[in-house]
Fold:
Amino acid sequence: MQTTVVKPLVFSALMLLGGMVGAYADPLRQEELDWLQTMAFAAHQTDYSGTFIYQYGGHVETSRITHIADRDGEHGKLERLDGPRREIIRHNDQVWCDLGNGKVKIEQRQGGREFPALLPEQLTLLSKNYVIKTAEEERLAGFHAHTMVFQPKDNLRYTHKMWADSISGLLLKSEVIDDRGNVIEQYSFTQLSIGGDIDRSWIASNQPPTASPAHMPHHTHNSHYPHDAPHVGDPLLAGTFPKMAASIASGWRVDALPDGFRKIAEVRRKLHGRDAPVIQMVFSDGLAGVSVFIEQSDHDDDDHDGLSSQGVIQVYSKVIDDNLVTVIGEVPPQTVMQIADSVRNGNNP
Amino acid sequence: MKNNISALMDGELFDDEADAVLDQIKRNPAAQTEWHMYHLVGDALRQPGHLHADMRSVLRERLQAEPTVLAPRNRERQNARWFALSAAASIMALALVAWLSVQVGPEPAPQMAMQQQPSALHPANFPLNSGLNAYLMAHQEFSPSTDVQGAAPYIRTVAGQ
Structure:
């Protein structure tokens, strides 16, 4: 009985508070949303090179990132500096992963999204789900940083804190904080050069050697390339994978989509290491994303069942109607679980 | 001086004389040692179970070693603690109500416990199974956070493998 009395009171108090914040924070909010746009622009259009620390749980590692935007589009290289050599090279929508021991995995980004990618609707959604605050300006890696906090209005998402270079808008540091105030994942540049003379030697040597689909080998994802090869590997791109994932209406749906999330894509696509295409539905609350993958269950593949986690990323898998459903996103465990538990196949009611 | 101290200890001095001797003892360290020594001798002669060594100076040294707290006592904190305690008491009361209603029948109260449950889910952090990397890569193509962080999200794919 007590709960029914207390809850409406607390609820209305929160609503009142929320309303007040909303009324007074509007101009500020717009400014912060503009900042986010600037940051997205900077992430794609700036030439930079730097070293950053990535940390989640008790795990810390250092990586070097280089990004160049030119007439050919975007080139990015990410190298892990600690432990075994790991490297990811990206040219526009093509991604090469060198995970050491000479093995090269190649991915084709199939999202095919246009740049700049933060759409106005997305930002509207974001400001519905988060209270946006400006924090104190700080100095980071020698840069003057503009600090923003995106605080969720419920416990379905994490708090995001971002530090952006006040001149270029480049993200200098990012923290994700859970509902208990713990930082669960962070990136932070320790050294960064923006613009100027940035090493480009890796770009030429990592261009796909041939652009002709006729030369593309089929299913080479487990092949071993010589380690001293001047190029990372022949991309198995257009030949086996469609350039763009096909937008579809799969008939699958999420019955209890958590508040504030909206579907931003539904595609049928190839996934690396799988023969059959999978269905991918993507939901977003404006800042965080959740993908739902649906594929035919092969029964013997129970190694990734249940909940697993790495920093901000949560993965939850379960079998529904003989299909393996995998939900992955930068949201708390309860959010991925709620989504996975309410996935329904509308084709066989 | 020694005689005076001895007389003082034996209670043979008049009040004004005793005051004068005590005054001297206070100001003169040698007299203090003397005073202490006489007590020690007296104690030894009376043969108690144990002799107390220079308790006074031991005590003083211990006191000097203690950190000095200059901050005034915080009254707010007490209030906060009181509040926390009363809040805890209310939660206990709610829990009791919930428990009682469980005993009686399926009432709405247990739902509150259900709503609290998801927050308690905190899986251990570990590098994701490499089988999940394909999903992660595919997800990052679409996730809005990738737009702000550039290539940095790919770090999750290479981390800890």
